[in-house]
Structure of Radical SAM/CxCxxxxC motif protein YfkAB:
Amino acid sequence: MEQKEQMIFPSNDPWEPYTDIKQFGEARLTNIEITTTHLCNMRCEHCAVGYSLLKKDPDAFSAERIIQSLDDVEHLRTFSITGGEPMMSVKSIQNHVLPLLQYAKSRGAKTQINSNLTMPFERYEWILPYLDVLHISHNYGSADDFAEIGFAVMDKKPSAEKRKALFQTMVENSRRLAAKGMMISAETMINSRTLPHLESIHDQIVQMQAARHEVHPMYPTNFADHLPVASLDDIRSGIHRLLDHKDPDMWVLFGTLPFYPCNDDAADQALIERLFNEQNVTVRNDPDGQSRVNINIFSGDIHVTDFTAEGQLGNIETDSLEGAFRKWRDSKTAQALNCHCPAAECLGPNLLVKQAYYPDTDFTKRKAKVTKP
Ligand code: SF4
């Protein structure tokens, strides 16, 4: 197979919702995420959808019906497939993953799939021509970590040997795909469990020949209430440690950070200043609620990930995706978070961050004190 040409780099991140502000002067629906399965061969302790995993997927809307709804999205810049493990069922790959990726590519969108990378290599080869980013969760500094964390909430775990063998498959798949030019983006969640090991986790990601290390603090949600949330001081110092340690060639992308350019705290301002000025480091505004909605192919439900009651926006049988997005943007919840500081290219806080750390702050009355160069 031909070597893929990488078109995504720190100064060109198509998933950054600020791109819409630059292009259209306002938030737009440019980013669609589709949940294609509730099956997974793992049960990670940090998994955002672990509670919704099933042993058998229900009947789904056809790819053709979903594509009909996607046709309504005027500017489709980015398209992501998530699960469960979207590469686990060959039937699901053939019926949904492949046709949806092919459709998104034909629309000129950049595409991503979230996989644990433990599936047979040839399955990834099937989708490679239509894929720009292969996204994995990576919170492990070693095979032992993987065997423990990756199956933490599974009742009947495979043997430790089998679990460690899957770690080797993941590492091997990552290297082989990277050698073919696939962009591997590995995401680490900051919580009190990963914080002491951020450096070794980063080193592992470098060894897997990933192109990007994504780092997101973990917030209190129903899926991870057993994992203690780290304090702001600990998150801040962990990020400084990672920046001190990072491989200079590795792109490190921070998302849903709990530190804002309008914060008065001198330590927060110093950190943001550093993040803005480090080479190969970016801070992404959260696409959820800014440019993205999610479709579940089984229920047809359209929603904004991470947003509870008001995040349920309708169903593809009765609602258009553009209409659902407008409904969200007009909602009281979205309006309360709707601030914009051009000096810092900041689009305001994520709802979970605000609830966790800034419950009484009205961000719409604040202004950035740190400027993006
Ligand atoms: S956009 Fe909102 S959160 Fe961001 S710096 Fe401005 S006021 Fe603060």
